[in-house]
Structures are given as structure tokens and as C-alpha cells.
């Protein structure tokens, strides 16, 4: 079971488990599909629903700050991976939950121009479908913008 490290009342570090991520994302996808986004994030009742669901499902108490921090991680994954998937030579390996790369040369050239992507070559990112559902509209780049799922299908 994950728990916050540190003294009672202090701001501890929470280690997220795959089950906690799945529980959190299940609520976020449902609320996203219901349009429960505010201008700068989620509506207040969404945080409460997520906190309650993670507690009920995983037996772990999380805070709004824990949830916000985890959402920033998901957002970063989406930002980096969706840009990679928009390029020729990349796809998503749904079975292994990571990038599929046509060749080492393709990867080397991409990372040379995009240093922040370097750690994603072998990174396993669970729940990519849910992450891309939640964050795709937040990162539209204008006319011709594609969701991660559309990029993968090409």
C-alpha cells in the first residue's frame, strides 16, 4: 500500500501505485466526459470524487495536492508522448504500454532535437488511453490538431 512519508501533519511524498493511478483516472475520464472541467482545472466536486474513489478502491488517503501533482505527471506524459506520436516513425505499443520506434536512427534524430523526450524510449506509461482522453483537448494546437489516438491510428 502506498503512503505518504514524513511526520504527521507534514507534507509527505506519496508513492502512487498502478491501482491508484487506475482508480484516479477512472473518475477523471468519467468526469471529463461529463464536462466537469473548469477554466483552470477540475471543478471542486471532481477532486472530492477522486479522493473518495481512491480511498474506497485502494484504501489510501490522498489530498487534492497529491491529485494535482499526479495530474501534472500525466499532463507531462501526454505532452511529450503525443508530440512523439505525431512524428513519422513512431507508434504506441498497446501490449507493452510504451513507444514503438521504427529504428534507432529515427529515435536518435528525434531526441537530438527534443532532449526532454530522452527518457521515454523505454518508459512504460500505463493507462495511455485514459491519459490521452483527458488531456487531448487541453493541448490542441489549432487547425489540424490530432488526438493521441488519431496519431496512433495513422
What do the pLDDT scores average to? 86
Helical residues, percent: 40-55%
Distance between the amino and carboxyl termini:
39 Å
Instruction: Supply the helix-strand structural class.
Output: mainly alpha
Domain module count: 1
- Strand count, sense and closure of the main sheet? 2 strands, antiparallel
Count every beta strand, where a strand is a DSSP E run of 2 or more residues. Answer: 4
Q: In words, what does this structure look like?
A:
By secondary structure, this protein is mainly α. The protein has one domain (18-134). 50% of the residues lie in helices and 8% in strands. The protein has 6 helices and 4 strands. Strand 3 and strand 4 form a beta hairpin. It is elongated. The termini are far apart. Pfam families: Myb_DNA-bind_3. Residues 15-110 form the Myb/SANT-like domain.
Layout: helices, strands, pairs:
Layout: H1 18-33, E1 37-38, E2 41-42, H2 44-58, H3 64-85, E3 90-93, E4 98-101, H4 104-113, H5 128-135, H6 148-153
Antiparallel strand pairs: 1-2, 3-4
What's the short story on this structure?
The chain is mainly alpha-helical and 154 residues long. Helix content is 50%, strand content 8%.
Features:
mainly alpha, two-stranded antiparallel ribbon, 4 strands, Myb/SANT-like_dom, elongated, 50% helix, 154 residues
Amino acid at each position: 500500500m502506498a503512503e505518504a512519508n514524513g511526520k504527521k501533519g507534514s507534507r509527505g511524498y506519496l508513492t502512487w501505485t498502478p491501482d491508484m493511478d487506475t482508480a484516479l483516472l477512472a473518475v477523471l475520464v468519467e468526469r471529463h466526459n461529463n464536462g466537469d472541467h473548469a477554466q483552470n482545472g477540475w471543478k471542486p466536486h471532481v477532486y472530492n470524487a477522486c479522493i473518495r474513489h481512491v480511498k474506497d478502491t485502494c484504501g489510501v488517503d490522498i489530498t487534492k495536492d497529491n491529485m494535482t501533482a499526479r495530474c501534472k505527471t500525466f499532463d507531462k506524459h501526454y505532452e511529450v508522448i503525443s508530440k512523439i506520436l505525431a512524428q513519422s516513425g513512431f507508434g504506441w505499443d498497446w501490449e507493452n504500454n510504451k513507444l514503438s520506434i521504427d529504428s534507432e536512427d529515427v529515435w536518435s534524430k528525434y531526441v537530438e532535437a527534443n532532449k526532454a523526450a530522452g527518457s521515454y524510449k523505454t518508459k512504460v506509461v500505463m493507462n495511455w488511453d485514459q491519459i490521452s482522453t483527458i488531456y487531448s483537448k487541453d493541448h490542441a494546437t489549432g487547425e489540424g490538431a490530432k488526438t493521441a489516438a488519431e496519431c496512433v491510428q495513422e
